[in-house]
Amino acid sequence: MKDDRQFEEHVAGGGTLDSPVHMPQDCREELVKLMTGFADSQLAAAAGLARVLNEGPSLRERMALARIVYEKIQIAETVLEIASTFGADISRYAAYHAWDSRVDRDADLPPARREGDRRLAVFHFPIANWTDGLVMHHLMSQVTLVQLEEYAHVCYEPLGTALRGLIPVETRHAMLAREGIAHELARGHRDMVQAALDYWWPKAGASFGARRSAKYRELRRMGLRRRPNETLLKDWTTLMRAYLDRMHLDPPMSV
């Protein structure tokens, strides 16, 4: 690209790039933020789920969760390898980081990302028990699927290709969570499932960001977004409301 305007015209028409060399600096920086934030969230999610692994009611259910934990770490590695081609320093991921660190469950935590740990705010809160973890994981798997559908069309084709390849993996994670919740309901744990829904729903929904976001408009200009935050939230809410109806669960009070 000769200049930023030519780049914007290219991506506005659906064009993509195979190399970061010709991207404007601000676009490269936002892509690195996107990738490191996604990887941090996957690693923090894996660490949180691992803490309740041994609470699984059966060996088969523990194995299913162990596979999810492994694949989340693998997903983070895949995305970080792409980030490294932008010159991102990913050496910190080889050292210890407290991905299992959590705040109090009733903490008032702002949704903004934190420097050095760009996980989504929802992954700063602790999982209370096995049932709580299943519900949180299902809600966030659906969040991730909606976000993957959005970011799979970024202007940087290698990242878009990688994210499209992750959709079947995350779809399987959501399916395993649904199966686990169904087992919990069959065991008579409906009140625990409902309590977890009430707790995690607003935190999961906040992962889509602010409505009428100026940041969204900036990312759209760079070819990194297509649909606004409120549309993504609406898509997720529709999916989850349909699930609640099928399972005869009550919508959380925040809906």
Automatic annotation (TrEMBL):
One of its GO terms (cellular component) is cytosol. Residues 1-11 have a biased composition (Basic and acidic residues). InterPro entries: Aromatic_CoA_ox/epox, Ferritin-like, Ferritin-like_SF, PaaA_PaaC. Residues 1-22 are annotated as: Disordered. GO terms for biological process: phenylacetate catabolic process. This is Phenylacetic acid catabolic. The lineage of its organism: Bacteria, Pseudomonadati, Pseudomonadota, Alphaproteobacteria, Rhodobacterales.
